[in-house]
């Protein structure tokens, strides 16, 4: 079935694209969630009229993400955790703790956007990446200190 995507759908396509998908996927997932509409000429014309508004919205969202990225890169946060005298943490510091600390600093970040290879298990200073958008990554410093 050919459908016209109203929103970006991961591994399927981007907003405004006409894609061929399985009939069941379209009927049971895309159409009920209003992620797509059947690829008819009328639906395509309506989407073309909305493209100007969509373009302005996308530009505004991009500018906001760029501003958040600049603010995030200028921010460093401190996470306090229980540690041994040698500097080994009794637990670990993960994406949740980092996201909470960044949110308290005024930069709202979701836990799933914090990129860590593995949880932090020692006291120190770490550079952590935050995925702001699919093509926009910010880096910030995280200070892990002992209680």
Folded structure, characterized:
- The relative contact order is 0.14.
- The mean pLDDT is 90.
- The protein has helices at 23-30, 41-73, 95-104, and strands spanning 2-5, 18-20, 36-38, 76-81, 88-93, 114-115, 120-122, 124-133, 136-146.
- The longest helix has 33 residues, at 41-73.
- The chain has two domains: 2-69, Ribosomal Protein L9, domain 1 (3-Layer(aba) Sandwich), CATH 3.40.5.10; 71-146, Ribosomal Protein L9, domain 2 (Roll), CATH 3.10.430.
- The protein has a four-stranded mixed beta sheet.
- The protein is elongated.
- With 147 residues, the chain is of the alpha+beta class.
- It contains three helices and nine strands; from the N terminus they run ββαβαββαββββ.
The gist of it:
The protein has 147 residues and is of the alpha+beta class.
Q: What is the first-to-last residue Cα distance? A: 59 Å
> In percent terms, what proportion of residues is strand?
25-35%
Largest sheet: 4 strands, mixed
Tally of individual helices: 3
Question: What are the secondary-structure elements, in order, as H or E?
Answer: EEHEHEEHEEEE
Percentage of residues assigned to helices: 25-40%
- Name the poorly predicted regions: none
């Amino acid at each position: 079935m050919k459908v016209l995507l109203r929103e970006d759908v991961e591994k399927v396509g981007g907003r405004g694209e006409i894609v061929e998908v399985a009939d069941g996927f379209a009927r049971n997932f895309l159409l009920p969630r209003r992620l797509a509409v059947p690829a008819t000429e009328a639906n395509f014309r309506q989407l073309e009229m909305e493209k100007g508004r969509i373009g302005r919205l996308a530009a505004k969202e991009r500018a906001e993400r760029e501003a958040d990225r600049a603010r995030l890169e200028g921010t460093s946060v401190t996470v306090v955790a229980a540690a041994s005298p040698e500097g080994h943490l009794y637990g670990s510091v993960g994406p949740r703790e980092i996201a909470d600390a960044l949110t308290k600093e005024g930069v709202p970040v979701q836990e799933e956007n914090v990129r860590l290879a593995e949880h932090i298990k020692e006291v120190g200073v770490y550079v952590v990446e935050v995925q702001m958008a699919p093509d926009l990554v910010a880096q910030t410093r995280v200070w892990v200190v002992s209680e």
